[in-house]
Amino acid sequence: MAQLPPVNLGVHIFAAFMVVLILRRPLEKRWVMIADEVLQPKRQFVFDFLLGLAAGLLAAALNTSTYGFPAASAISLIYGVLIYSFFIALDMSLARERTIILSALARNTIQPLPKRLYSMTRRFTLVAVATALCVSIVNLSVIARDMSWLTMVGTDPGAVREAILSVTYEVLFIMAVLLGLAVNLIVSYSRNLKLLFENETGVLERVTNGDLSRLVPVATRDEFGLIAGHTNTMIEGLRHRIELITALKLAEEVQRTLLPAHPPRVPGLDLAGASIYCNETGGDYFDYVRLPQGRLGVIVADVSGHGIDAALFMASARAFLLSGAQDFKSPSQLACDVNRYMTRDSAATGRFMSMFFLEIDPAAKTLRWVRAGHEPAVVYSSVSASFSTLGGEGIAMGVVDHVEYRDYAQRGWEPGSVVVIGTDGITETRNKAGELFGDERVRAIVRANAAASAADIQTAVIDAVRAFRGEAPQEDDVTLVVVKLL
Amino acid sequence: MEFQRSHRPHAEKVVTMRIILHYLIAVVILTIYGGQV
Question: Do A106 and B3 make contact, defined as CB atoms within 8 angstroms?
Fold first, then answer.
């Protein structure tokens, strides 16, 4: 073969590669392209490596049949083609992977995470070791062949110099080819990595800016695919959370509409009320109900717990209360009726509700109330500068089906008296040191502001509770209704 | 889908050009050294 003119050899090698090239496209479509996208790069490698082998075998066969190629030369040719095919197959595999990544990016379709991951580090190690082996084998082959050749050159200085030059050029050429192939692989792999990094960081940048509209396309089954899959799970979780927060905000707005925007104007009374929830939604409730003959009903209720479930329970309790007030006979009768309905609803949840219902008759100057497990109302008499309570017995509603609540009444009041009805969220507010706000602080504020309007008294108490709590978290809803009896 | 109509054939062409280039270089190198690496 050494005597064979290069052009003759080249023609057959060229012909072999052309045949393979012509067959390549249809075969690639049938074997590589039909595979799942994540499997295509691996198939592409095997496919191009086998095609290279086929080209080598064909070229060797052609040269053997035409020029009587010796077996050693044929094997040598196949060996050279195999080494080169290894680099071609790797490069084409990376090119296939790049096409898939670009395709996934353009489609923005999200594939499920592959069940079996093919670790990038494992792949990198395999490729690096195989490349190092190929380079070493080629170098060893060349060195062995040239050493053997040099021993045959003889001792003629001119021939030796020429042989050394020839060997040097050959080694340099082969090193340049191998270096070129290795650099090409590195550049190809870097391009893929860059695409994958841009893919991931681009979406994460959007997420950082609050844009959750895009997910990361899962284009590979290595760690990048895994990271993309986890990022997508995170984005979907964030979307779900935002939906929940939006729904909670809506629930908060709806619940706000269930509380009176402002108190009714009733001659002889000055009213103010407010609820501050510790979450978006709460379980506290207050309301004013106009009753026959100019009387007014004031409701303050507290559902056990807080949050969305307490808010729903409160909403149904409100419906029962307002419905029952249409046919109002007495506070105790209302409490009995509402308790019956609520017990049916609360049986499965274990929720209950405390309530204080105060019926005020400004004309007769009488107070009538029922207490269902709620804190007693506090009455401050500005004339005697003393406190009394509107107490009584009665368990919380929604616990026992049939409860006989009792009406309690007080006839007459001193003008300027202040009735304060609150929930335990006020007295049980804790500061950072763990101290309770307590009943005494409420009374002190009421006493100090007794001459002020109901709204001012209510604001003073709420502000004092906030100031007392300071940086500590609000643990319970706070509701306060202040009635000034004129 | 848009990518498949317009970009994908382009990407395939790039891949095809790449393999042609590889094969040509292979033919030249193997011809020069007669496959005897």
Answer: yes
